[in-house]
DNA sequence: CCAGCTGTTATAGCAATACTATAACAGCTA
DNA sequence: TAGCTGTTATAGTATTGCTATAACAGCTGG
């Protein structure tokens, strides 16, 4: 798990951390039970305040991706194999996908290429498990 | 073109307007040359300040989706048929797709269903043209 | 037991963002 | 001329993102 930040991005730092962790779990680099660095440690590593890391972890906990104890620290809770999501989640997620796909199509990306890229990404997930 | 806002959403209003317009173009509801309402008119219709609409239009113009003249107002410039995007755009877009797909997989949405939903959405675009 | 780590909470400050509001100017059009 | 349009400026408010400092509680290794 190596996280690289883009401090010039418009995407908030805590969101970038959250995104990288989610991707790492999808990739299988992080699995159920995997230990994440402490907020203070990761803050030092990334050169940012530990409160910002805390916010990212808080977001991940809210999403059910990780579990945070005073005892065990932050560990991965959710996996691709953890069971199906709430139906309401799928709907909300799909509306975000719809916006993203619409953008690509409007920008002229051929639907066939959209499908190809999507399949390539999906294939790269959890194939390392 | 009917735009509905969610004033309680965490997504900024101007972003919601931008998203709905992009989706409308992808759907074929708005085509190349289609006229968009004036910023003041849409502001009244949506019950918001016209500067917020202006910001959304500005974003759409920056993205190359619409064209804004003092003379003709805002009209759709870009279509699914307007030609291929910059290669750099495709890469940046793919990284956003990657994050979104990773999230779905982590939340337990089966990859097969992800593909199905993606194909359904793509199929709904521009099929009305 | 003590030192050092951890998570958690509180408080504060600063810069930037989102939205609203009012105003004014310029150009097109009926 | 009147009324629409886009454009620009300025300003105020609330919220967000990030940083900073501090303090407390619980776990753990010496």
TrEMBL record, chains A, B:
The keyword Phosphoprotein does not apply. Keywords: DNA-binding, Transcription, Transcription regulation. The keyword DNA-binding applies. Residues 11-79 form the HTH gntR-type domain. It comes from the Bacteria. Coiled coil: none annotated. PROSITE patterns: HTH_GNTR. PANTHER family: GNTR-FAMILY TRANSCRIPTIONAL REGULATOR, HTH-TYPE TRANSCRIPTIONAL REPRESSOR YTRA. This is DNA-binding transcriptional regulator YhcF (GntR family). It comes from Kribbella sandramycini.
